[in-house]
Amino acid sequence: MGTFRFHWLLFPFLRLSSSYRRCPLSNRSLIIASVCVIYLLLVVSQTGYSKQHRDMRTDKDKYRLTRGLYTLDISDAQSDNVDFQTGANSVVPTRSNVVYITLKTKRLKPANIRGTLRPKLRKKVKRITEANSAFTQNKRGTLLRDVGQIQRNFPHKNFLGETKEVHYKLLDIIPTHHTDSQAGSHISSIRIYSQRAPPWLSPQDVKAMRFLADANILRIKEVIHGDYTSLLIFEGETSVSLGNQRDTQGNNVCGGQCGVISSPVDTTEVFAFHLDRVLGLNRTLPAVSRKFSFLHDGLPGPVLLWDASLYPEGLAAGRATVRMTWGEYQSSLKQKCWHKNISPKPDSDCSTVHHYEWSKLALFDFLLQIHNRLDKSCCGFRPREEDVCVELGLDAECGNQKHIQLTNIIHRGHDPRHLVFINNKGFFDRNEDNLDFRLLEGIKELPESAVSVLQSKRLREKLLQSLFLDETYWESQGGRQGIDKLIDVIERRAKVLLTYINAHGIKVITMNV
């Protein structure tokens, strides 16, 4: 029965094949050509349908990713960026409309970073002779000019000198007609369109950014410590407690919440803050860009949150600084000081800083090419004549590198194990063939949280979302086009760093200390 059914099913095929063999050669060729044409038409139609279906799915995915400004995976959120009371990183939106950030635009011309980031605001000054100066003559001249500008704007007020070691020059600017126009505006320059800020920014970060950008200014102080350190500090009026103002002797500088005003040439501080948070390092002070009608000729400049815990013994004693040479630093890297909470030997070259902190600092400084901490003498790259290390003659010390003193290694008075990254003067105009690899010397491990962001190819997306919050900084850099140029530089350096990690066998580990 089964054999009969098989022959019955096979019978039409046998008849067609016998008829095909009896046909002339020309007819058989015509039949083959027709079958091929029909098959080709079916293949083309099926390919077009698949491409159209795939394009529709891609458009839906793009809409899903860009319909909200901060539609991110929950896994990207850091555990320490959650509000401790509510358990969520929720904020109050400052804008009602929605702006979409996509990654479509690409430039054809190379970026002119120097023209974008380092505007020439003044003529070149004479060579500086004080090797330990924290501020260049350029920056000091700017501060003195700003103080004179304040005096001209407020002639009815006088500056008050209080002590010999630390001088406070105080100026009240509480009259409403002199207050900053931006601070008096009802629209915040920190623009948040969603109920949730980017997950890498903690609620404290958002509060600090809003205070620095929008607080009404009560008074301004110029604080001069010694012969070289000069700070321009403003005290703002706010009802929000920022949570990091501690009762220390350094608080006599600021009675409430305060910010430190920097020069417009130091705009890297704002970019550094957002890069630090995106990488999950959380070692910089909050910074925003802000315009003051009575300072810097109205140009936007960075404003950093004042943190009195950096001055545990008062401003006269200076910051809580780790003093060590390059040779001692390299020795401490080999000993892995404080690793696994093991106390180092008394005769070791260990400092109070945990071993992992150096890895975070090296990665951060390499991406921004900040050399004033680990390489103040510019021994690891070819400096220009206008660089501070050349002007001060520090590059001559490279012949005896072991005895070069590290600078700007700062920690809080109550937390000596962790560093605070300040004076983040980065350089975006340094090409890939002149990067400072000395910053990575002796580093055998790097933080997994930061390296994973560099490997995920989402660094640009996250930086755009984060920097977009600061409207003043965004516009001062030329909008989306200018910000893209800066991110281009960081992305290229990230590729170089990833290649360096693979070539030198550097371990990528979790650093939750």
TrEMBL record:
InterPro entries: FAM198 (IPR029207). The chain crosses the membrane at residues 29-49. Signal peptide: none annotated. The keyword Oxidoreductase does not apply. Keywords: Golgi apparatus, Membrane, Transmembrane, Transmembrane helix. One of its GO terms (cellular component) is Golgi apparatus. It is found in: Endomembrane system; Golgi apparatus. Belongs to the GASK family. This is Golgi associated kinase 1B. It comes from Pogonophryne albipinna.
